[in-house]
């Protein structure tokens, strides 16, 4: 961890501990470089009653570079069925790639993803899900996403 | 800056009868009448007519040949000047800072005319799209320096280091609450200098990105070159500048980078800058590192005499059909008589089986004896329509066969050209031998090297003539083209064979004379072919067959 990212992450963590945005809970941040947060859509949505888990990995160049963010997929967790979320948990969102800005934060990313889920009218996998999952790199940050229409 | 020496014979070319620079040969001016009758009968048999060693006096300034183009190499500084000239032009028209003009030009992919038109029409929309601060009343930037105020009056994006806007200030990126130094673009979003540096470094060095936005998430303002130069390290700023000029050159039709990996020379070739010019010329150029490439399509070789469009068609076809054609490339064949394996190890097509002494032609596998007076059976594929074109199946077989006939010869010249480079090392040895076993000077043994160079170059021409012949429509013009092709091919094969002949010390003067004569003849034949095809493009003489029919319509 570089000086920039350490100071910044400590500050973010302190703020999150003080109080998360509604529907978002810090699950674990024992390692300053890997955090887990739970996320759910409050109110009416196609994901009513579902709780998802997000994993954030922060590299040494955070926040100049975006964090690696995925939905956790294991025995107890599933990725939401959403046109921008692949079944392996990778997320196609420009905010995590080309639209990333160093002033964005962990909570800002969570809120964006939350509203991405909230605005989804129909549960559907991305059309290229199978092909992508078969060949996907370990980290979504190494994938070359053609960002789907972010307004969906 | 001019590269004239690349096209014109040096007046002072002295002891050699042709240019040391290997590709621009003197044209035997006395024989100019021959050029106009390229296919006259009997010429091939008395090649010695050309074997006159030209004296230095005969070398006048030769004008650029019909198949050559004028070009020049641009230094990095020259590219900068061109780029800045564009920026200053735009800046002058609209009263902008040059660095703002550069951002606008980059945004418009350096299309100056379009930029001017759009900016006239709606400057605010263009500025917004390009990530430049809106023109109306200046947002108070926290700038404390007078330069910042003056500049911001012209509404450039770059603003100077500033005292933190208000105390206490905390950098929103690193959360440092007492940074020693902060910078902000004209939008006023201030960040500490360390964060700016790291951010710009990441963009420029890691991502190879020269379009860098303000770090604020909702801000679309771009960092201009003045800002980057001020904030970045020297190396990062230099790299940024490189990225910008590569973008400039990459977006212009006037300039091209040398396509060889690691080479960064820029070439300018005005006569080949328009798309339509590429229908009639093949702009072969050479960077100062002697990398030969096509200015039109950036292919890293000289594909004369075939124009870019058709060359591309051919290369694509070769790629698509490579599986089928692979067997052809094989380096070994069986002797037609005794079936023992024969490996091709020189550039010559005249094969002699070590075992049974059978002599045959590598290309057509026919007896070599027939080639002395009927060479053309080898350079021309007789299209056997009628008999075989009965049903669809045999039609497609016929078309594959036809392709393979041309491909075979194409690949053979390619391979032989490479083998002739191997031969060069052998030749070098011969040269050394000759120097020690005879009283010849180094200059006097150069004829062998010249011969190899000429063979290589002409095989490249021949290679592309087969691609060209594949696409030429049948008829008189194609036949004349193939006559030239055959004459060159015969000359090249003769010279190749001569290069492989054993060297007998007593024989050197004779060999030297023979090789010199043949080399002169070969270069003459190559020139005739290239000149005739170049002329043919200008006259609209070349018609393409169904495989390249698109091009006939395009004309
Ligand atoms: Zn900072
Ligand atoms: Zn800004
Ligand atoms: Zn080069
Ligand atoms: Zn080309
Ligand atoms: Zn044999
Ligand atoms: Zn033959």
From TrEMBL, chain A:
Q: Name one Pfam family in it.
A: UQ_con
Which InterPro entries does UniProt cross-reference here? Ub_conjugating_enzyme, UBC, UBQ-conjugating_enzyme/RWD
**Which key words are in the record?**
Ubl conjugation pathway
Which parts of the sequence belong to the UBC core domain? 4-152
Keyword Magnesium among record annotations = no
Q: Which domain of life is it from?
A: Eukaryota
Q: Does the keyword Ligase apply?
A: no
Name by which UniProt lists this protein: UBC core domain-containing protein
Q: Which organism is it from?
A: Botryobasidium botryosum (strain FD-172 SS1)
TrEMBL record, chain B:
Q: Which Gene Ontology BP terms does the record give?
A: protein ubiquitination
Low complexity: compositionally biased ranges: 137-150
Q: Where is the RING-type domain?
A: 167-382, 171-214
Compositionally biased region (Acidic residues):
1-26
Region feature Disordered, mapped onto this chain: 1-49, 137-166
Under InterPro entries, the record lists: Ariadne, ARIH1-like_UBL, E3_UB_ligase_RBR, IBR_dom, TRIAD_supradom, Znf_C3HC4_RING-type, Znf_RING, Znf_RING/FYVE/PHD
Provide this UniProt record's keywords sorted from A to Z.
Metal-binding, Repeat, Transferase, Ubl conjugation pathway, Zinc, Zinc-finger
What's its EC? 2.3.2.31
Reactions listed under catalytic activity: [E2 ubiquitin-conjugating enzyme]-S-ubiquitinyl-L-cysteine + [acceptor protein]-L-lysine = [E2 ubiquitin-conjugating enzyme]-L-cysteine + [acceptor protein]-N(6)-ubiquitinyl-L-lysine
GO MF terms here are:
ubiquitin protein ligase activity; zinc ion binding
Q: Mind telling me which CDD domains this protein's record contains?
A: BRcat_RBR_ANKIB1 (cd20346), Rcat_RBR_HHARI-like (cd20356), RING-HC_RBR_HEL2-like (cd16625)
Name of the protein described by the UniProt record: RBR-type E3 ubiquitin transferase
Species this protein is from: Botryobasidium botryosum (strain FD-172 SS1)
Phylogenetic placement of the source organism: Eukaryota, Fungi, Dikarya, Basidiomycota, Agaricomycotina
